[in-house]
Design a protein that fits this description.
This protein has about 130 residues and is mainly beta. It is built from one helix and eleven strands. Strands 2, 4, 5, 6, 9, 10 and 11 form a seven-stranded mixed beta sheet that branches. A four-stranded antiparallel beta sheet has the order 1-3-8-7, with no helix packed on it.
């Protein structure tokens, strides 16, 4: 069992930066792949970024590539999302998620392959 708590959301102007953090409970954090998703009302929850459990290999949605960075600290049970050059279309509730290896390797971009979710944190980018 993994419990996830996001923090760091807020209001920022377009072009600005924001860093989200996700704190995980559980001694097996290092065995999970971690991801960030986002959702706006009326739309599906969409993949933003993911990072594997050991090598730090990262994956990004095309919409955020070259603007966002993801990192994890297995010693501290945290995963972070650094968002640069933010745009109004980045406005959403951002969710941290954890996936067991075998499910994540099937499709790391699908929210259905993530087993645990945080409560979400709001990010609002003003124009």
């Amino acid at each position: 069992q993994v419990q996830l708590v996001e923090s760091g959301g807020g209001l920022v102007q377009a072009g600005g930066s924001l860093s989200l953090s996700c704190a995980a409970s559980g001694r097996t954090f290092s065995t999970y792949a971690m991801g960030w998703f986002r959702q706006v009302p009326g739309k599906e929850r969409e993949f933003v970024a993911a990072i594997d459990w050991s090598t730090g290999t990262a994956y990004f949605a095309d919409s955020v590539k070259d603007r966002f960075a993801i990192s994890r600290d297995n010693a501290k049970n945290t995963v972070s999302l650094l968002m640069n050059s933010l745009k109004p279309e980045d406005t959403a509730v951002y969710y941290c998620a954890a996936a067991m290896r075998w499910r994540w390797e099937r499709d790391r971009f699908s929210r259905y392959n993530y087993d645990y979710w945080g409560q979400g944190t709001q990010v609002t980018v003003s124009s």
